Amino acid sequence: MRGLSDAQRAALTTAVDQLAWTAAREMLELEPDAGPRSDLPDADLRQMWLAALTSLLAIRESAEQLAASAALSAAQRGADYPAIGDAAGMTRQGARRKWPGLAGLAEGQQRKLKWWNSRGDQFTECVRAVLAATEGQRESPWQADLRKRLTEIEKASPAQRIDAFDMVVVAAHAVALRSPTPADPTAVLAIGLLAALTADAYAATNTHASLIIRGDIACGADDCPADPVVELLRPDIAHEAVPACHQHAVDALRQADSRIVAAYQQNVALSVFAEAHGE
């Protein structure tokens, strides 16, 4: 990648200098055109240069934060450490030390985009159904947040949609698990499906650690030898997350209060939910 020219660097330095002095004047409550003139007393000049120093260091700190954000965004869209190091004027090892944890982010972002492209319409329709079921009632904070996040992801460009994905799924997960069980059977299905969709989203994108590391988890049913495929929130077990094999999950989900918390593989949560409700 071509770097900045000398002229561009000079222009950037001038812009930073102007920004620093603007901030320094505001700190000292000086006039907009005030500057370090030679006819000023040393005490005034000293305060002005110290304020400029403070401003420049604050600009450097902000620039470091923005650089880290730029490196993260570049990595999420496919840049590897050699490319990031080249852009930053350092080796790939230097880039890895400065911004660790960026490797493989592009793959994760693509998984999110793939899931949204395949399930986004169903997810959006389900969220709307859940929110519609509570219209006319006092809206909870997490329902309000979900409404906001859904609007954001619907208005986002494809690139922005990736960034909005995590927030809308987190908000949907909160609503699906915290909402009380409604009396309307249609609303019960909508909330249950939303729980299954968020569990599937996490399983597909590997953004939730508890969905990645299973360890030696067994089905929560007594003496069941089958491997668990999901975790359920069940009212008959003090609303704790309980691992369940396929058949026990299907049986439990036929209770209105049971919802899927997590799935160990993609598509499993939706398959179990569909079987439980004859879909």
Question: What distinguishing features does this structure have?
Answer:
279 residues, mainly alpha, three-stranded antiparallel β-sheet, 11 helices
Can you put this structure into words, describing what you see?
- This protein has 279 residues and is mostly helical.
- The protein has 2 domains: 6-98, no CATH class; 105-276, no CATH class.
- 64% of the residues lie in helices and 5% in strands.
- A 3-stranded antiparallel sheet has the order 2-1-3.
- Helix 5 crosses helix 7, helix 7 (158-178) packs across helix 8 and helix 10 (246-253) packs across helix 11 (268-276).
List the helices and strands and how they pair.
Elements: H1 6-28, H2 42-76, H3 81-88, H4 92-98, H5 105-132, H6 141-155, H7 158-178, H8 185-205, H9 209-212, E1 230-234, E2 240-244, H10 246-253, E3 259-263, H11 268-276
Helix pairs in contact: 1-2, 3-4, 5-6, 5-7, 5-8, 6-7, 7-8, 8-11, 10-11
Give the structural class. mainly alpha
Q: How far is the first residue's CA from the last residue's CA?
A: 53 Å
Q: Give the mean pLDDT.
A: 88
Given as residue ranges, the uncertain stretches (5+ residues, pLDDT < 50) are: 207-213
Beta content: 5-15%
Task: Give the topology string: H per helix, E per strand.
Answer: HHHHHHHHHEEHEH
Radius of gyration: 27 Å
The strand line-up of the biggest sheet is 2-1-3
Number of H- or I-type helical stretches:
11
Q: What's the main sheet like? A: 3 strands, antiparallel
Tell me, briefly, the overall form: elongated
DSSP E strands, number:
3
Share of helix, binned: 55-70%
